[in-house]
Amino acid sequence: QVQLVESGGGLVQAGGSLRLSCAASGRTFSPYAMGWFRQAPGKEREFVAAIKWSTRTTFSADSVKGRFTISRDNAKNTVYLQMNSLKFEDTAVYYCAATNRIIVPVATIYDYWGQGTQVTVSS
Q: What's the sign of the alpha-carbon dihedral 115, 19, 1, 47?
């Protein structure tokens, strides 16, 4: 019923910034938490960041802490991922996800997923 659509991906030079957006549609959207995951070629899908919808409490992976910031806009049913100081290692397909259960860095807990948006960081 809920559809998530990511946007904002693209090509950026190392050290640059990019902001990803994830818009929810299809029904009244009120998840427990939303998160971002990413997957590089040949690697497992990994947790990036998550935000609890009600309190805006955020969590992020150590690899992006201090560089990436997750936020939300209730009026637009949208979650954002502001990515600064991008590194080549950040290159991946980024997926938006939502869960009605608990905020944890485990992909299987999330109920809804977007199609992904490619982020490529050049050295």
A: positive
- The encoded tokens of residue 44 equal 């497992």
Query: Hey, which bits of the chain come out as E strands?
Result: 3-7, 10-13, 18-25, 33-39, 46-52, 58-60, 68-73, 78-83, 92-99, 112-113, 117-122
Residue 31: helix, strand or coil by DSSP? coil
Q: Could you report the per-residue pLDDT of 10-20, keeping only the tens digit for each?
A: 999 999 999 99
- Burial class from Cβ neighbours inside 10 Å (0-12, 13-18, 19+) for residue 101 reads exposed
The half-sphere exposure of 20 on its side-chain side, counting CA atoms within 13 A, is 34
Over the stretch 76-102, which tens digit does the pLDDT of each residue have?
889 999 999 999 999 999 999 999 888
